[in-house]
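To: structure subgroup
Subject: Chain for Friday's discussion

All,

I'm putting the inputs and outputs inline so they're searchable in the archive.
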Amino acid sequence: MTTPATPATSATPEAPAAPAAPAVNTVAWFEIASDDPEGVQRFYGDLFGWRFRTDAGSAAVGMDYRLISYDGDEGARGGVFGTRGDMPGHAVFTVLVRDVAETCRQVEALGGKVLSQVVGNAGGPDFAYLHDPSGNLFGIFAPAGA
């Protein structure tokens, strides 16, 4: 007499692997800035199923910043910045760096431009918005305490 095989449905599912941390000097974040963050949230949520939650650190310093996560992945992968009309809307990629101030110096030495720089940010990471020599907007950041 043979023993029946264990049905495939009885196997214990494995938890999905945690995403690897981004490497320094790679694109590690994206941001969508708008004076209508509710509309942006509704659009991308309906289109791609993205989920949004308030970033508590940003809210603590009066900034409207919403973290974006994807279905099946709780990690934040990008953000929506509510500009309150203080700057033009944009969508930008952001690169993880070791030192924001030093990278800003390198950008200028290479012919780029620093548009804004926040170092020692109590509400989150150090970051900067920059233009490359062709005028393309991009961002850099270093985690808080890096």
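Points worth raising on Friday:
The mean pLDDT is 85.
The chain has three helices and eight strands.

D.
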